From TrEMBL:
It comes from Methanospirillum stamsii. The chain crosses the membrane at residues 12-33, 79-99, 140-157, 163-180, 187-207, 213-244, 256-278, 309-328, 335-355, 367-384, 396-422. Keywords: Membrane, Transmembrane, Transmembrane helix. This is Glycosyltransferase RgtA/B/C/D-like domain-containing protein. It comes from the Archaea.
């Protein structure tokens, strides 16, 4: 018992060190991509200080035709899900508090630095007034959330791997995937989405040993859906799995359903108060196109295109396929694994049904980001096999894995520090108006 307790404490110490290491690197990277997320922090402040969900005090000075804004009953609201803004309340409140009690006024410092490089002070003041603090908040919060995603995955990996390999696969998640180049660069939906999906995933793993914990798994699943509607797939499939696992206990099934519905009920109440509808515009199924020739291009493009391909930007994910093969070969694949595979597959189908399947102005396979932890889950058996190989075979497999991981790290590093790779979306032609550029091998995004 004492040894087990020491191991648990060791995991927590490792997690804390990992968090601050990853958070520091994320925070130091210069790129901030406040695109879809532009109004998340203003909405959080509106909730805290105005007590409402409208953006009237912000949009009145902006273009009311902004794609991120919807006009309803004479008020301006965020078109994108407001779950991020709600989740950010404690962090924004804390950061506001720190700024209020801080004796350091950063405005003169910024003015001095700007003037030293020839930037007009009036322009600097305008930027500071309108956007600077929101961008600082957004980058800080995105870095915190993304680092927490890695920590949760570390605990998932520790259920199967020793500490060294768990740290390795966690660092792969942190720096060789779109978590670094996209999720940590702005307060996109993907960071919180992954966080709550991982909470549910971890809950399902613990519930295998302690079935009474299964009643709580639906809470993070329903919150993940409220954050990002494509998580309806995870909500449905994992809920069916949990109901199957608890088929011998109607009491647990009842509690699971009630607890799962509570966040959804609050979501519906809020939607009715704002839109007089059960679902907001962003969640409507009409946003996904019907099956057409475009979906086949999207299915291939989301995996292999030079600008959005999962295996192009993170080629090490090829080992996920090998991991599935190993589970089948060793007959260790179970119902849980099948549900995880189905979730990945239907997510791939869903993101390929969007008319703008390339995720607009983005970097790499952004739409695949939410299921990256599920893909990494199938690399765990590969690492387990490598750890038990003969030294000669182990060196070869480790070398191949690290080469692919190294390529992935370089690609995602560029997304975190090089502005040019993001400029690719608009120059020389807007990718949304010229989607053929997704397949342009003469102007590959990560080579900018």
């Amino acid at each position: 018992m004492q040894i087990h307790k020491k191991l648990i404490n060791s995991d927590y110490y490792t997690a804390v060190i990992l968090f601050f290491f990853i958070f520091s690197i994320y925070l130091l990277c210069p790129i901030v991509t406040s695109f879809d997320s532009k109004y998340y922090i203003p909405l959080t402040k509106s909730i805290i200080y105005e007590g409402n969900f409208d953006l009237d005090e912000y949009v009145s000075f902006e273009n009311d035709k902004d794609y991120r804004i919807t006009n309803n009953n004479g008020h301006y609201y965020s078109y994108f899900p407001y779950a991020n803004s709600i989740l950010a309340i404690p962090l924004v409140f804390f950061l506001d508090f720190i700024l209020r009690i801080s004796s350091v006024d950063i405005e003169p410092i910024i003015l001095q630095v700007g003037e030293s490089v020839g930037i007009n002070p009036d322009i600097i003041l305008k930027v500071i007034d309108n956007r600077l603090y929101d961008l600082l908040y957004e980058k800080t919060i995105a870095s915190i959330v993304s680092a927490l995603c890695v920590i949760l995955f570390y605990f998932i990996a520790r259920k199967y791997l020793n500490n060294n390999y768990a740290i390795l696969i966690s660092l792969i998640f942190a720096f060789a995937t779109s978590l670094w180049s996209v999720a940590s660069r702005g307060f996109w939906m993907h960071g919180p989405s992954i966080l709550f999906l991982e909470l549910a995933f971890l809950g399902m793993l613990y519930a295998k040993e302690k079935p009474h914990l299964s009643i709580y798994v639906g809470i993070p699943l329903s919150i993940a859906y409220i954050i990002r509607p494509t998580n309806a797939i995870s909500l449905v499939l994992f809920s069916l799995y949990m109901l199957y696992c608890n088929r011998d206990s109607y009491k647990r099934i009842g509690k699971y359903c009630i607890l799962t519905f509570i966040p959804l009920f609050l979501f519906i109440i809020l939607n009715l108060s704002i839109y007089n509808a059960i679902l907001p515009p962003y969640f409507l199924a009409e946003r996904i196109t019907n099956f057409s020739p475009v979906i086949f291009e999207a299915l291939i493009g989301n995996v292999f295109s030079p600008a959005r391909g999962l295996l192009i930007f993170s080629p090490f994910f090829i080992f996920s396929i090998y991991g599935v093969y190993l589970k089948i070969k060793t007959k260790s694949i179970d119902i849980f694994d099948i549900v995880v595979l189905m979730t990945i597959f239907f997510h791939w189908i869903a993101i390929s049904m969007y008319p703008h399947w390339w995720a607009g102005h983005s970097y790499g396979p952004r739409f695949f980001l939410d299921v990256n932890p599920l893909l990494l889950y199938f690399i765990i058996p590969v690492l387990s096999k490598i750890s038990s190989m003969k030294p000669s075979s182990k060196k070869i497999w480790t070398f191949v894995l690290l080469v692919l991981v190294g390529i992935s790290v370089i690609i995602h590093l560029k997304g975190a520090v090089i502005f040019g790779v993001w400029d690719w979306n608009g120059t020389p032609l807007n990718v949304d108006e010229n989607p053929w550029r997704i397949w342009d091998f003469h102007d590959i995004q990560f080579l900018r």
